[in-house]
Amino acid sequence: MNGTYQPDPDDALRVWREVADTSVLLDGFHAIKHALRFGAPIPSALAGDKAAVLALADDLAPDVKDALDALLVQVPEGTLRALVPRLHPTGVAALAVRPSRAANLDALARMPRTAPVVVLDDPRNLGNAGAVIRLAAGFGATGVVTTGTLDPWHPTVVRGGAGLHFATAVERMDVSELPPGPVFALDAEGEDIRGLKLPDDAVLAFGSERSGLSAGLRERADHLVSLPMRPQVSSYNLATSVGMTLFHWSAGRPPGAEA
Ligand SMILES: C[S@@+](CC[C@H](N)C(=O)[O-])C[C@H]1O[C@@H](n2cnc3c(N)ncnc32)[C@H](O)[C@@H]1O
Fold first, then answer.
1. Does residue 214 have its Cβ closer than 6 Å to ligand 1?
2. Mean pLDDT over residues 102-109, rounded?
3. Residue 159 in 3-state DSSP?
4. What CATH code is assigned to 101-251?
5. What is residue 2's predicted lDDT score, i.e. its pLDDT?
6. CATH class of the domain comprising 9-97
7. Residues of the chain with CATH 3.30.1330
8. Is 73 helix (H, G, I), strand (E, B) or coil?
9. Residue 258 pLDDT
10. Among 60, 154, 202, 212, which one is most buried in terms of CB atoms within 10 A?
């Protein structure tokens, strides 16, 4: 084995079982890599073949190899599969501590803001929510807020977000509690985005896959904004719409401003 340190597997499994119910499951190498890069506390990380995971780190992410070596505990593959039934093909899983709601609300409310907040108004599709969190992380957005019943920390959303929940502030809240800043609500009937500059303190709101923006969000909106779309096409996918809108915001900034 390449690893220089191998803690006791029984201790690691005990910690896993103790914290599993209150932690965020990081499923696979890429999710763990992102969580480490963005400072997530990881109390337990398990692999069926630690050497294979460290070899993957050598190839794909040498910056996290030492941290992985210190964290990862090798356990029998069957034991790992009993804990994580849909184990990722990279054969590694970890549990991370979810940031507190208070810390996220603080980050979302902080002004002046240097990058927009994305709001998903009653989203229904867990995969869409994960893809949006990944976009928000990539563009350096301040955070992603969801309204409605979907849990933005649901394991399927975390899997879709590739561990990037830790790179932005992700919380659920009511429309009445949205962070400060001008609300630009995206709707096919709005003003063409190409004529607008989106400010850094914008709150960019997107409607539900099924029914679009809720009445409450429309009431709260300062601007209704549309993405260019040819006649007879009814709408774009939710995550695609977020990607285009964040790109439009970033295109108004100097290169390198995302750092
Ligand atoms: C799948 S669409 C919702 C379609 C829904 N049937 C409706 O009536 O609006 C999800 C969200 O993506 C955004 N969206 C999709 N296409 C858009 C467009 N051409 N312009 C602005 N926003 C758009 C909107 O925020 C919309 O609520």
1. no
2. 97
3. helix
4. 3.40.1280.10
5. 47
6. alpha beta
7. 9-97
8. strand
9. 64
10. 202
